[in-house]
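[Meeting: bench + compute handoff]

Bench side (C.D.) handed over the final construct sequence. Compute side (W.E.) agreed to return the predicted structure before the next meeting so the bench team could plan truncations. Sequence as handed over:
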Amino acid sequence: MTTQASQIEVPENWEGSIPEWVAYSTFISLGKEPGEDFTYQSPLMGGRLDKGGVVLDFMFTNPPDLAVNVQGVYYHYEFGVEARGRDVMARAQMAGQGISLIFIDDDDLLNDPEYYCREALNYKDHSQLGGR
């Protein structure tokens, strides 16, 4: 099933990207409850305001050692090595905290959200940073 971003209905009060909404709503359809099983846009170690801080798109409490970030192809891969370096550092920082940070590429998410969200919940990273 191919999903077109322009055909996705996003609530007016949604503050994230369309692919993040797709992931959010897909995690819910897979039985995860916001606020109970995961939080959206979780700042850690000072978030974006502090050097070395990160903001995780999805921080899970069920399972307790999983985080998922949606990777926009343009901003995360085509924006240069600095952007990719921040993502690699975020993964290393989270590993140091005992958290597996899984990336989902936005184009994959828009094409087959259930598959990639299920894979992420099973700690499988198919992103460009994950080595595909």
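W.E. noted at the follow-up: Confidence is low (pLDDT under 50) at residues 45-52. C.D. will use this when planning the next construct.
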